[in-house]
Amino acid sequence: MKKVFMIVQKKDFVPSLEEMRALGVVHVEHNDVLKSDDITAIKDDIQLLEQVIRILENAKTDDHAPKEALDSVFEWREVTECVLHQMKKIEVLSDNILKRQGLINKLQKWGNFEPQDISHLKEKGINVSFCEMPVSQKIVPKEGVIVEVLSRTGGINNCMVITTGSVDPGHEGIVLPAKSLSHEHDSQEKEKNNIKRAEDELKAQVKYLPALKRKLREKEEKLVFKEVIVGAKNTGELTLLKGYCPQKTCSQIETKAKEHQWGILFEDPSEEDKVPTLLENPKWVSVINPLINFIGILPGYKEVDINPFLLLFFSLFVGILVGDAGYGFIYLLTCAIAHFAMRKKVKDITFFKLIYLLCGCIIVWGVFTGTYFGQEWLGSSVKPVIPWLVDPKNLQTLCFLVGAIHLSIAHCWRMILFYPSLVILSEAGWIFLVWGMYFAARMFILDVAFPGAGIILFILGPLLVYLFSEVTPLKKYLQTVSGQLFPKTLDIIGVFSDIVSYIRLYAVGLATVAIADAANRMSISWIIILHAINILLAALAILVHALRLNTLEFSRHLGLEWTGFTYDPFRKTENIN
């Protein structure tokens, strides 16, 4: 990646930006704070369009599918105002319906009556009131008092009390709403009809979805352009634009600069520069890209790209973690159905390629271990291709071995990076420690004898780590070592836990098989339910454990901090219309 500076006259800056955008290779770095009324206004428009598009996407049905061939003359603000007005109306009406339903629930136990009728009776000297009495309480009305039980709610009688004149009913009355139950029902139906009309009006606006999405892309593109203008540095009559570009594109920029008389300067990025990351992997490695995009991590510009090893070990870990050929087939079938259903909508099928690869690893490991929706129900009818893998002790040993190889690769890689510095001896010390901890893990967990010569690993390893982690003048080195002695010791001890961490591959895989076997001993309905749950849990284990071993244990030993951000060149959106 090269750092590029473009200098043009201020009056020619906007046309020059158009040309730079058409070239589409420069990742622009803003020099000034992006504060502008225009930028704020565009962001408000984008937020408004995104909100309206979300509403219309939810309102979309087969009967109201968006029309691609829509008249280009349309006022998008009128459409957004209409959509937001109808949405606000639906929200208010829905809130009213919810509140009124609570009132209806309260009135239902008293029956349907008109409050005006009660008022008319009162004018004629007949008083009607309502009260609640415990069911356990015997109703003994006083003289001149009539008590009628209208309904019962739990242990409460809902009663109507009728008296004449000034006779005391003997009970504290309950104040009821001023509207009748039938009136509230009618109001409820009216507001439901109003919601239906508002929803129909929303559906009528769905035809504008393609045009609104185009308008959104236009606004987003306009925002980027405006941010580049505001973020550029102005000095007198000149404007300076700073950015980064792949080295192979420098000749294109130089050609464009000569054509339009720009001042151009290319430099190597400095240590202080925040350089974007552009990963250019072989096609077979790019299969892992959907996973990287999903978790949202990227190595820094000066960090190494582990994607080839990530693809290799992630695939292996997925196979071990799930380890059931039957489950692998279910995943494969589900992916194939989704792929077929979305074949016309999805242009980039890299995600499906990754899933097919992982399914293949799961199926292969399941065949190796003879696991097809569990193991017990198969008996001796189906034998594993590699019986050695069925033995728990062997599988645990394999997990530790994979971990030691995985972490050793990280330190070998660092040796290549540090060569010819003597720091490579420190990395050799870490490799000795990794294999020493491998033998220690086997001894403590699997009760395998520690090899006699293995003690050399625990002598040479720490010695090389302490002596060669920092290659500096003696005085400074002694100061550094004294300050780093305790942290380095903790790191050395931590290697053991890192090796042991790989046993999660065995433990999770064992749990998957155990749940499958338990499900197979139950009724058919429980078999289906538990296998479905197990399949979901196995998929979750992939995201938790297979990713962790690569992005935490391996990355920590490699010194990879995932500090990168994506190379995003200033360019015009394709096919905006």
Q: Provide the number of structural domains.
A: 4
> What integer is the average pLDDT?
89
Number of DSSP helical runs = 17
Distance between the termini: 32 Å
Poorly predicted runs: none
Structural class: alpha+beta
Globular, elongated, flat, extended or rod-shaped: what is the shape? Answer: extended
How many strands? Answer: 8
Give a short account of the largest sheet: 5 strands, antiparallel
Describe this structure as you would to a colleague:
The chain has helices at 13-23, 37-59, 76-108, 115-123, 181-204, 209-231, 250-260, 289-295, 307-322, 325-341, 350-369, 392-418, 423-446, 455-468, 474-501, 504-520, 524-558; strands at residues 2-9, 27-29, 126-134, 145-153, 156-164, 233-235, 238-245, 263-267. It is of the alpha+beta class. The chain has four domains: 1-31 and 232-276, Alpha-Beta Plaits; 33-106 and 181-228; 111-175, no CATH class; 285-558, no CATH class. The strands form two sheets. Strands 1, 2, 6, 7 and 8 form a five-stranded antiparallel beta sheet that branches. A three-stranded antiparallel beta sheet has the order 3-5-4. The mean pLDDT is 89.
